[in-house]
Design a protein that fits this description.
Blueprint (H helix, E strand, L loop, with lengths): L2 H26 L12 E5 L2 E4 L11 H15 L2 H8 L3 H14 L7 H16 L17 H10 L6 H7 L31 H9 L16 E6 L2 E6 L7 H16 L4 H16 L2 H13 L5 E7 L13 E8 L1 H12 L1 H6 L20 E8 L4
Antiparallel strand pairs: 1-2, 3-4, 5-6, 6-7
Helix pairs in contact: 2-9, 4-5, 9-10, 10-11
Amino acid sequence: MNIKTFLSLSLAAGMFFSCADEKKQHAEKKEPVAEKKFEYVVDQFADLKILRYQIPGWENLTLKEQKLVYYLVEAGLSGRDIMWDQNYRYNLAIRKALENVYTSYTGNKDSKEWNAFKTYLKRVWFSNGIHHHYSNDKIKSGFSREYLDSLLTETGTELDSAIVDVLFSDKDAKKVNLDASKGLIKGSAVNFYGEGITADEVDAFYAKMESPDPKKPLSFGLNSKLVKQDGKLVEKVWKSGGMYGAAIDKIIYWLEKAKGVAENEKQARALGFLIEYYKTGDLQSWDDYNVAWTEATEGNIDYINSFIEVYNDPKGYRGSYEAIVQIKDFEMSKKMEVLAHNAQWFEDHSPLMPEHKKENVVGVSYKTVVVAGEAGDASP
């Protein structure tokens, strides 16, 4: 074989393998899979934008932990209508009627008034009632009384005319009124007190109550509605078998399932106290629960559930129903743990005068969480 023949064969072989490699690389090359863009915005109306959220870290939970989150979220959702009724005595009747109109109406859905009706209903949904969630002012309808009457008639929807009047008048204009000259209770639309009860009567009623242990005062009034029966003030307690009993029984059902998959004994113990509180309405059980809840610090899942914040009561006694379920933000907690471990370094290098610096920084911890579910006062 002469040198020309050898070079020709070598060149041909090189070209063959080069082409083969190129084909192989081309065959192995895959088109990148486009990540599906998460749509955060669900809807936008009035001054509101409705957003959905993701739950990063969900895949890091065990099946048992995921069940716990699910049960706790369902427990929270089971009490949603409690918040609606607490906000205003006619809220549930109004919502039921408006929703029936929305799903049954077959008339002109391109009119200005129908669009105003839809916006009004969405605002009511968002605020858990007919009063604005921040200002406490009654939401303006944006359509006429005559138009609503026609919608009710065309869809065969029943709504007491006295309730319809409320939607188009100044009656019950403020959910929570803090102007004493208008009467804290009389001027507030919240459904925590019966008709005709005054702020002075409320104060006198609770002034007579004494806690078994004066050093550990109970939260009197936290879980009840105060009404007059036969001229006397009595509490309608929110518990199983009492006011809101049907909804509370559903809450108990899901909490018991959650207790069965609790992450640890302390968490299960706290849930047990909460279940007992819902069953009996006993405020001592509520205190016992809160102590146990603060001690249950281990685990990846935490929650809030019950009648807690008292801002919606002009007298500051009664708690609004609220539920929040959250899981540990694993990535951010890991990062913040580094900062916590180096707290002494930050103290040493802070621009403080030496005499104000701590020689031994202790007790620094930091955890971040991701919300998995909300209901009641915490959410639309």
